[in-house]
Amino acid sequence: MSDLLVSSDDGVCTITFNRPARKNALTVAMYQSAVAALTAAAADVNTRVVLITGAGETFTSGNDVADFMATPPTGEDSPVFQFLLALQTFAKPIVIAVNGTAVGIGVTMLLHADIVYVADTATLKMPFTTLGLTGEGASTYLLPRMAGHAKAAELLLFGENFDAATAVDVGLAARVLPSAGLLAFATARATILANERPASSLATTKRLMKAATAEQVTKALYDEAVEFARHLESDEAREAFTAFFEKRKPDFRQFIAGGRP
Predict the structure, then answer these.
(1) Torsional sign, CA 72, 75, 77, 78
(2) DSSP code, position 63
(3) Are 2 and 42 in contact (CB under 8 A)?
(4) CB under 8 Å to 120, separation ≥6 — which residues?
(5) Share of the chain above pLDDT 70, in %
(6) What are the residues facing 98 on neighbouring strands?
(7) Cα–Cα distance between 121 and 177 in angstroms, integer?
(8) 163 has which bridge partners?
(9) Is the pTM of this model over 0.90?
(10) In the chain, what are the domains?
(11) Is pLDDT above 90 for 150?
């Protein structure tokens, strides 16, 4: 069975991360498939809304570490960047149902959705600094504007877990729902958009809502991609990933404070 499932029904294209045994960890191939699915959905006149979710009890644990290390992102040509860009530029409504754990890009992709629903059992985390990396997905631009600098700094600089209620509080999600009914609720809401609202009005409203910051968000995506790739080559990142594979806590004290990689 495919690691990424795509189905269409009643005007809604549902994209499902489908590696539950690996906590839906994302691979290069999955990013490429997701971009293809979004491109097809954008061109399909019968698709009015896209719904993204995960199989099993996890939304996505972020990048598959082994796949990530074998084919690390090198900038704007990388599949992960193309996926984020496809989300950011998608003209039709995007609904995301976060059915469980969301890590890294599993959180930052929410910044580009129009409506996000989160299961009450979900735990979210953006652990970029703990890996010697920087935020991506325009998170360093969008999150401070959504949550305020202080809260965004706490989430991005510490890289710690936060719950579904916090996701709503900082503007990442619209509401928290019981896990058992999450997907049914999200699907029903997406179906209302697809069948009970005019597509042109939805697209125009979305475009106007995003117009004021579209240029800055695109710039942030590109700037972050450059910095992410640069930090991936740093001593700090090497220490973080070595510690991950050795199942120990990384020691960043050996590096110069405030130094560049």
Answers:
(1) positive
(2) B
(3) no
(4) 164, 176, 177, 178, 179
(5) 98
(6) 118
(7) 9
(8) 123
(9) yes
(10) 1-179+201-254+257-261 (3.90.226.10)
(11) yes
